[in-house]
Amino acid sequence: MAFPIHRLRRLRNDPRVRAMVRETRLAADQLVEPLFVVPGTGARVEIPSMPGQFRLSVDELLRECEASLAAGIRAVLLFGIPEKKDATGSDGYAVDGIIASATRALKRALPDLHVIADVCLCEYTDHGHCGVVRDGKLVNDETLELLAREAVTYAEAGVDMVAPSAMADGQVAAIREALDAAGHRDLPIMSYSAKYASAFYGPFRDAADSAPAFGDRGAYQMDPASRKQALREVDLDIEEGADIVMVKPALAYLDILRQVAERVDVPVAAYNVSGEYSLVKATAARGWIDERRAATEILIALRRAGADIIITYFAKQAAGWLA
Ligand code: PBG
Questions:
Q1: pTM for the predicted model, two decimal places
Q2: Is the confidence at residue 182, as pLDDT, over 90?
Q3: Which residues, judged by CB distance below 6 Å to any ligand atom, belong to the binding site of ligand 1?
Q4: Ligand 1 atom 6, closest CA
Q5: Ligand 1 midpoint to CA 193 (Å)
Q6: Could you give phi then psi for residue 125, rounded to 5 degrees?
Q7: Residue 207 and residue 246: Cα distance in Å, rounded?
Q8: Does residue 136 or residue 118 have the better pLDDT?
Q9: How confident is the model at residue 209 (pLDDT cuts 50, 70, 90)?
Q10: CA–CA separation, 72 vs 247, rounded Å?
């Protein structure tokens, strides 16, 4: 009989022993902070659906990133909201576009900051889809050319990593080839490999003003009810040259995260998305949940499930909690 010989509580009674046997750790240098950049100066506008997150003009972005570095956050993921959107999302790959400009300013002022750029077109297109649209459909192969151009533009502006998120087939290969041809052989690609068509992106689409004007993203992002295609997406991205693969969203997809982490030999990132952040913020604001404990528990759960890197809007707060 196992009991009374075995008593698992023996290792739980003393907080020092609990810490000694703790399996999962979280450190600030595993966190990436997403930030939203807008044109102009002096802009720091709170995003209503994401309390504590702001749309920042480049000058304010510099201030924010300085504070992040001081808090122990070393990497940021940039999203741009351009002055003008158009059918092909040209601000995304314009040399003087919002992200290219922000990157040059950031790298000049804060060379120690690791700058990652999201590579997608939905923030820059007037229809809000992630690439070239014809007859109401995303045209995959024409989109690849634009994504590759966008990645090269960001590389020339000085980003340290690119993160393609359009879920176009072949996007990693197209970007790798274009980067190499332009001499950026050492620039890593973190691919949003297993990206689901999720309601949890709702607050982000408010923030980036990028909700699709018609239809949804079901034809290119993955079906939440499926698992196997996530594994194929990850395998194909690694074959195409992804240096890091990502699972997104994170919280409702811990099973995918765990399976991907066990399957691959490249680092795995989890994106703790806007809706997951806002759920905690909104309930904490009502006094229904302890924000710090809930957020920490989520971040630890993502690490436990297999994430090496966590992209989270809690990054700066968490760095403070960890200090
Ligand atoms: C696409 C992109 C999105 C997010 C990250 N990159 C939006 C989408 O696919 O609709 C969502 C992130 C979040 O919800 O925090 N550029």
A1: 0.97
A2: yes
A3: 118, 120, 122-123, 165, 201, 204-205, 273-274
A4: 165
A5: 13
A6: -95, 145
A7: 22
A8: 118
A9: confident
A10: 24
